[in-house]
Amino acid sequence: MTDALFLPNELESALRQIGAERYHVHHPFHRLLHDGELTRGQVQAWALNRYYYQASIPAKDAILMARLPTAELRREWRRRIEDHDGDGVKPGGIERWLKLAEGVGLDRAMVESTARILPATRFAVEAYVHFVRDRTLLEAIASSLTELFSPAIIAERVSGMLANYDWITEGTLAYFTPRLTQAPQDSEWALAYVKRHADTPEKQQAVLAALRFKCDVLWAQLDGLYLAYVAPGLIPPGAFVPGDAE
Ligand SMILES: O=C(O)c1cc(C(=O)O)c2c(n1)C(=O)C(=O)c1cc(C(=O)O)[nH]c1-2
C-alpha cells in the first residue's frame, strides 16, 4: 500500500505526535533527574556524557551547513554554530555546558577530554552526526526537529533540579536560559522548511523517520546512563565512576 500525501499541517501534527510519544522527556532517567532522585555522582555522569552531545552539535551543524545550496540558507544555519561555539568574546553553549559540569563538581579537563564517557553516548552521538552527513538534506534538517519539544523539558528540568537538589544553583543551570529562545527560533524555521519541501509521500515518510531516529539518539543516551549508573550499575571499563570526581 502506498502512503497518502499529508497536507503541511497534517505533517506537522504527525511530527508533533512523534514527540509526544518518543521524546526523551518520558525516559525514566529524566524523571529521576528532574525529581531530585539522583545522587550527585549520577548527576555528574549525566553532565559528563551530555557534554559529548553538546560538543558534537556544532560539528553536526557545520556538516549540514556545508550541504546547503544558498548563502541565505547558510546564514540561517550559521547562527546555530555561533550559538554553540560563541564568538570568542561571548561564551557559547559548549562553554556554558562546561560551567554546568564544573558546577556539579567535575574537572573541566576531564570533561573536555571525553575520555570517560559511555560507549553508548559516543555511538549514539556519532550516529546523529553521520546521519546528517549521509542522508538527504531534508532528512538532515528534519532530524533537528526534536528541538520543537525541548523548551518544555528544559523548563521542567530547571525548576525541578533547583527545587530538588540543594547543591544546584541557578548559575550552574544557566546553560539552559538562552536555549529557551534559541530552540524555538531554530525549530520553527526547520519546521517551515520541512513542511515546504516534504511534498511527496516518500519525502514525508522520510522526515517522519528522521525525527523517530533522532528521538532514538536521545533515548539511547539515557538508556546508557540508566544501565551504568542507576540499575543494574554496569559501568563499562574506562568509564567515569562516581566518587572519582570528588
Ligand atoms: O535539554 C534538552 O533536553 C535538549 C534537547 C535537544 C534535542 O531535543 O535534541 C537539544 C538541546 N537540549 C540543546 O541544548 C541543544 O543545543 C540542541 C541542539 C540540537 C540539535 O539537534 O541540533 N538539539 C538540542
TrEMBL record:
One GO BP: pyrroloquinoline quinone biosynthetic process
EC numbers for this chain: 1.3.3.11
Source species: Sphingosinicella soli
Every Thiaminase-2/PQQC domain range: 14-223
Gene3D superfamilies named in the record: Heme oxygenase-like
Gene designation: pqqC
Name assigned to this protein: Pyrroloquinoline-quinone synthase
Domain of life: Bacteria
Record-level Gene Ontology MF annotations: pyrroloquinoline-quinone synthase activity
Protein family: Belongs to the PqqC family.
